[in-house]
Structures are given as structure tokens and as C-alpha cells.
Specification:
A hairpin with a 3-residue loop joins β2 and β3. The protein has a domain of 108 residues: Pleckstrin-homology domain (PH domain)/Phosphotyrosine-binding domain (PTB) (PH-domain like). A seven-stranded antiparallel sheet has the order 4-3-2-1-7-6-5, covered by helices on one side. Helix content is 15%, strand content 26%. The protein has two helices and seven strands, in the order βββββββαα. It is an alpha+beta fold. It comes from Rissa tridactyla (Black-legged kittiwake). Keywords: Cell membrane, Cytoplasm, Membrane, Nucleus, Phosphoprotein. It is found in: Cell membrane; Cytoplasm; Nucleus. This is SKAP1 protein. InterPro entries: PH-like_dom_sf, PH_domain, SKAP_fam.
Length: 179
């Protein structure tokens, strides 16, 4: 399991969503689960949670790859049960949250699902400038980027294998004179 280096709030990269959520702690107290207010940030790959929005070090973070997000009204019995959602992944910890409102909870779930769909699709998001230099390997037939500049030469000729001597085109009127 790769460790994600902790980052201060201002440093978390492309922030897709952020805001205060209540996160259920892993330690259950005598009275049941503890809900702690956390400043949460979602970027393209990672979910961070901080004590507050000015914190320098996250309380924790996890890669959201392979997680799924869904509303989870069963997490609370009080008036805020429609504000709950959870992030689950087989074999990994389940994260449980309460948003300030049902609409906010839905928005968090939508954003995470959108991001997960993006992560699981075959297209790897790159900056426009990087794409050309990464995929201009004409030799590889299983190249990810099969655009028109990767077309095979000799499309019209059924015989693709050429003999060594056929690589030079003989132009009319330029034959070497045989003596």
C-alpha cells in the first residue's frame, strides 16, 4: 500500500470539493460512535481530512481509487440521517461522514462517483502538451493513442513484407545504364 505524503491544506493540488463534514471515528466510545468535525478535501486521487481548514497536517488521507461512495441513511438515527454517506472498498476501511445538509451529502457522493468513473476509465488524463510526446511511438501496434498519424504504411498493398531491394522507388527515365 503506497503512502500518500501529507500535505498542508493549501497544497493539495486540484481541489474538486472541500468543506466541513463530520467523520465517524474508528474508536467507539461507551456512548457509541464519535462524530468529529473535519475539514475535508477531495482532489483527483485522494481524500484528505484535517482538524480544520487552517491545519498544516492532515489527520488522515486515503486514495479513493477502488472506493465507492453512496448515501447511507442508516448511519445515524437522529434528524441528520439523510445527510450521511459512506466510502467503502473491499478489504479496506469504510469511511463514514455526515454533511451539513442532504443536498451537500448528495453532492459529495456525486463528485466522488464522477471522479471514480474518471479513474476507472481507460483514458488517462494528461495535460494536452504531454500527450504527443508520450504516445508518438509509431512502432507499437497496441499504442493507447491510435490517431490518424499512426496509420500503417502500404495500406493498399496486400503484400506487406517487402524484400530488401524494393525499398528504393525507381523513377521513370532514371534507370542506371547497363554497359
Amino acid at each position: 500500500l503506497e503512502e500518500i505524503p501529507p500535505r498542508p491544506v493549501q497544497d493539495t493540488g486540484n481541489i474538486l470539493k472541500q468543506g466541513y463534514l463530520e467523520k465517524r471515528s474508528r474508536e467507539h466510545s461507551f456512548f457509541g460512535s464519535e462524530w468529529q468535525k473535519r475539514w475535508c478535501i477531495l482532489n483527483r486521487r485522494t481524500f484528505y481530512y484535517y482538524a480544520n481548514e487552517k491545519s498544516k497536517q492532515p489527520k488522515g488521507n486515503f486514495s479513493i481509487e477502488n472506493y465507492s461512495a453512496r448515501l447511507a441513511f442508516h448511519l445515524r438515527k437522529d434528524s441528520r440521517k439523510k445527510c450521511c454517506f459512506e466510502l467503502t472498498c473491499p478489504g479496506k476501511r469504510t469511511y463514514e461522514f455526515t454533511a451539513p445538509s442532504p443536498a451537500e451529502a448528495e453532492d459529495w457522493v456525486d463528485q466522488i462517483q464522477f471522479l471514480l468513473k474518471d479513474l476507472s476509465s481507460l483514458t488517462i488524463p494528461f495535460d494536452e502538451g504531454d500527450e504527443e510526446e508520450l504516445y508518438n511511438d509509431v512502432e507499437s501496434s497496441d499504442s493507447v493513442n491510435t490517431t490518424s498519424h499512426n496509420t500503417t504504411l502500404n495500406q493498399d498493398e496486400p503484400n506487406v513484407e517487402m524484400e530488401e531491394d524494393d525499398i528504393y522507388e525507381v523513377l521513370p527515365g532514371k534507370q542506371p545504364k547497363s554497359e
